[in-house]
């Protein structure tokens, strides 16, 4: 699955992993699954990992739609969310940054982008020893 997530309840964390060819549909499907997951709670920290994306097949219009959707989700939240996005330099980073700019400053959402996983985790206050499984079954150590 190109867009998947793992919830780590004891850390109040959602790890979202994007792999290969990513489309708007797979992102929306992942968000639908995540929000319906009984372990998901409002206010969880979010770690978005775009390092293994090879094709970000999302149009400019879809990027704008994501920004509006994010603003809508954020407006109805009662608890703040902190999101760390790990994304390499290049067109995928440019697309992610454009969505962040379109969303603008939101009181209940703090977003930062990183090249380095350890810096992203420090931003979220997550210990370096955490592990999770990627959609492909590979074990990733967060440090």
Structure description:
This is STAS/SEC14 domain-containing protein. The protein is an alpha/beta fold. It has a single domain (3-141), classed as STAS domain (Transcription Regulator spoIIAA, 2-Layer Sandwich). It is built from four helices and seven strands. It has helices spanning 24-36, 60-75, 91-103, 117-124, and strands at residues 3-8, 13-23, 45-57, 81-86, 109-114, 131-133, 139-141. The chain has a five-stranded mixed sheet with strand order 1-2-3-4-5, with helices on both faces. Helix 2 packs across helix 3 (91-103). The chain is globular and about 35 Å long. Mean pLDDT is 83; it is low at 133-139.
Short description:
The chain has 143 residues and is an alpha/beta fold. Helices cover 35% and strands 34% of the residues.
Index terms:
Transcription Regulator spoIIAA, two-stranded antiparallel ribbon, STAS/SEC14 domain-containing protein, five-stranded mixed β-sheet, 143 residues, alpha/beta
What value does the Rg take, in angstroms?
Answer: 14 Å
Oligomer class? single chain
What is the CATH architecture annotation?
A: 2-Layer Sandwich
Total beta strand runs: 7
CATH superfamily: STAS domain
Described by strand count, sense and barrel closure, the largest sheet is: 5 strands, mixed
Number of domains: 1
Number of helices: 4
Strand order of the largest sheet: 1-2-3-4-5
- The SSE string, one letter per element, is EEHEHEHEHEE
Write down the CATH class.
Alpha Beta
Helix vs. strand class: alpha/beta
Fraction in helix:
25-40%
| Low-confidence runs of at least 5 consecutive residues | 133-139
Q: What characteristic shape results from the CA principal axes?
A: globular
CATH topology group: Transcription Regulator spoIIAA
N- to C-terminal distance = 24 Å
Q: How much of the residues is beta strand, in percent?
A: 25-35%
What is the residue-mean pLDDT, rounded to a whole number? 83
């Amino acid at each position: 699955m190109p867009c998947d997530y793992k919830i780590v309840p004891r850390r109040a964390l959602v790890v979202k992993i994007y792999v290969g060819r990513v489309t708007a549909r797979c992102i929306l499907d992942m968000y639908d699954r995540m929000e319906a997951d009984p372990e998901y709670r409002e206010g969880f920290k979010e770690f978005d990992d775009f390092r293994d994306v090879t094709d970000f097949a999302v149009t400019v219009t879809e990027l704008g739609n994501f920004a509006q959707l994010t603003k809508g989700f954020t407006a109805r939240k009662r608890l703040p969310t902190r999101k760390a996005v790990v994304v390499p330099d290049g067109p995928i980073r440019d697309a992610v940054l454009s969505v962040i700019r379109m969303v603008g400053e939101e009181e209940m959402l703090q977003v930062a982008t990183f090249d380095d996983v350890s810096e992203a985790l420090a931003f979220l206050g997550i210990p370096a020893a955490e592990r999770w499984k990627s959609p492909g079954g590979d074990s990733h150590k967060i440090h």
